[in-house]
Structures are given as structure tokens and as C-alpha cells.
Sequence to fold (215 residues):
Amino acid sequence: MKFLRSIPIVIILGGLFYALWSGILEPSEWKVPQSAEIIKAKVGEAQLIKEGSKIFKTSCAACHSLRYKKIYPFFVNAPNVKPLFKILMKEHNGFLTRDVYESAFALQLEGLKAAFGSVPPDLSTAYVYLGEGKLFNIIKNPQKVLPGTKMPNMQLNDKQVLAVSAFMKTAILPTAKETSRRHLIGIIVIIFFIILAILLALYRKVVFEEDNIEE
Ligand code: HEC
Fold:
């Protein structure tokens, strides 16, 4: 049995994939602390998202864009760039692709770079590429995760950090309600294929019997 020999390889690769995917290998100091998990469960996602939206727009948007949510740094409202910003937003239905955004506001972004050592990155996908735990800790205490960074400690409490993080999540991932809706659709599609397969098998049998074909 040739295929039996490949089972250990499949198990090892599968295990590795699971370890990476599930975050088991993530350093524990980058996890969301237990105390914050309790707040999260208590307050609820919808409320956190609402508060996070406000915090992001008033605090983080001083430096960061969140283009997937049509949020741009404060500098786009400066008198010298506001007209250009308005035209671009209208032309592109509110979503400026990275190249359009970065070339239109290169001067302003260079200014931020001069002040902070690096351009504060767009945070549209940060929730996914950093992961919830690392994102939480960067917002809570940037120096701990990115030693020497110019990203300021915004002095947010755990609930506020959770709120910003929950809001940033909505830029890149569907809400919990939408996720369960998609899972349900997935299950329905699989059931549909199983029923289809059974019907086809029955149909095949009937056709073969009618034509007296030996299987
Ligand atoms: C005064 C400007 C400023 C403000 C305000 C600010 N940041 Fe930052 N942030 C930065 C800079 C600069 C960096 C890049 C740091 C580096 O590369 O070391 C950064 C980096 C980050 C990163 C890491 C991104 C990455 O890809 O590594 C996250 C996440 C982040 N900021 C979130 C936030 C959030 C959330 C807020 C609001 C609560 C906020 N920042 C407010 C300047 C700022």
C-alpha cells in the first residue's frame, strides 16, 4: 500500500500547519491578557466596534490611514491638500488605492516620516498580519513590541485598546454574525453536493439497468 507511506508526512505537515495557524507558537507576552478577554466578552463586539471607530478617528488618524474604511490622516484636511483630496475621493468612490494615495500625498507622508522616522503605515490589514494579540500589545505599549519605535503610547485602557482593535478588524474581516452566516452557507453547499452525488449515483444505476449494461 503505497499511500500508507505518505500518512506520516501528511500528519507532520498538517501538524505544522495547525501549529502556525492556531497561534500555539505565538510568544505568550503577545497574547491578549485574560483580564481583557473578560472585558471583551462582557461588553460585546458591536459596542466595542462603535467606541473603537471614535477612538481611531480622533486619536490614531492623526498619523495613520485606514483606507479600507475610508479614513485618512488629519493632514488631508489641511487647506493646501483638501481640494485635491476631495477630487480624488470623488473620482475613486472614496477608496484610494495605495499608489494613488501615496503619490498624491507623498510630500505629507515624507513629513510624517521626517517626524517619526518611518511613515505610520496604513492599518487596513494590520489586524490580520499582526494578529489580535500582537496588535493589542502594540497599541497598549508600542515600546514593548517594537523597541525604539516612534509610535507613541496612546495611554489607552484595556477596553479602549480592545475597541480600536475590534474596529480595525472590521476593515479586513467580516463580523462574527457575517462569519456564521458564511459558515452556514458553506454547510448548505456541502449538503447540496452530497445530495447531488447520491441522486447522480441512483440515476446512473437506473440508466445502466435500462440499457442492460453490466457494471
Ligand atoms: C503621532 C503619530 C502616531 C499616532 C497618533 C499613532 N501612531 Fe501608530 N505608528 C506610528 C508610527 C510612526 C509607526 C511606525 C512604527 C515603526 O515602524 O517603528 C506606527 C506603528 C503602528 C502599528 C504597527 C504597524 C506595523 O505594521 O508594524 C500599529 C498597529 C499602530 N501604529 C496602531 C496605532 C493605533 C491603533 C493608534 C491609535 C490608538 C496609533 N497607532 C496612533 C505613529 C503613530
